[in-house]
Amino acid sequence: MSDKLLYAQIFKSLKNHGIKRLIGIGENIAAFFQSEKKSEHMQVDLFPTTNEYLTQFLSSHFKEEVILIKGARIFAFEQIVQLLEQKAHQTAMEINLNAIVHNLKEYQQCLKPETKIMAMVKAFAYGSGGAEIAGILQYHKIDYLGVAYADEGVELRKAGILLPIMVMNPEEYAFETIIEHNLQPELYSFELLDSFDCFLQQEGIRHYPVHLELETGMNRLGFSIDEISKLAEKLIETNSLKVQTVFTHFAASEEELQDEFTRHQFSIFNQAVKKLKDKLGYDFLSHISNSAAVVRHPEMQMDMVRLGIGLYGVDSAGSNQLNLQTVTTLKSTIAQIKRLKKGESVSYNRKAIVERESMIATIRIGYADGYPRRLGNGVGKVWVNGKFAPIIGTICMDMFMIDITDIENIKEGDDVIIFGIQLPVQQVAKWANTIPYEIMTGISQRVKRVYFEE
Questions:
Q1: Does the domain formed by 328-452 have CATH 3.30.565.10?
Q2: Which residues are catalytic?
């Protein structure tokens, strides 16, 4: 298209969508919009180059606005993004949506073409943001989503997610909400089955989709394998329920020493599924594999697999067979740098005494943001200016301190990586004597999430 036709269409689209402000960078766009600078529809500011715009950039020019930044790579608009993020966020969790898609494709390469995928987006999508992650997975045609509670499913529906959503902990008071938002409950006990069946009958609803969990060794939730005949009879007696999937949880699919038990779980689950299908007289999906089992036990794919932590870049199988990319980067900034004399203390209770003249930096994140307090007093480290800096003293509610004595060229306002590509969350979890799940899901929602995609 010619510039005249292209920019005329752009201007019309901007006007139709009620855009009040346009900043145009580049000679071509400036040439067209010069005549629109006095437009009554929107404020128009034009600059020939990105550098000229950056010389006059002020964060105070933006307040409570949604900003769309779009342009060719040659314009290097990421410089503008960095300035906006620096002003808006001191501590932020950056989520790379491209990495989510990449990791999804890595797992898909391990699956048969007909094997379906349920993506787990419970617990705020492992801390990464439920609606945003679900949106990108929906776009890439995931088959099912899994959440822990009904309110998580409601949030996804409100965000425009149309995929089938399984609710793993459907509390009785939430039945009405589940029906209203077309969510599909997991049933794991006869008490829950009877309660939901009764509710559906009162509402006059027939053949409502449900999922059944069987107990094969996790000993958490699920119908006993010995109760399959009784379960089938219950389902046959009612026309309120229609089984969509039947599943169970592996207890230790990532551990080689437990492979015999994993095979035992798979075997008895297979037998139970066959028995249930024979008695019900209709087909349904069966699934048992989690992220680790997809890699370590490919023969156990069944009809569907459930992807969880693997989607977010953590290889729970530890196999190194997949080239997973880091999805989340938690970063903060240095609030202040202090020079301490030998013998001075740092943080509460004076648990850290410096043994030499030291440079101490205060970081804008603490245990109220979900950073584990047990990482204090030299247990944990952060990545700053290309090096590891140890945490010194007790971690506070909203901040903690690091020792930067041996790291050069650090100034107040510099970025600090709490975990990310340079410092994997697996390492942080190891220091904290826990698992990556706890670190990722523990990051408070007061920490802003910033999503990017190329």
A1: no
A2: 122, 348
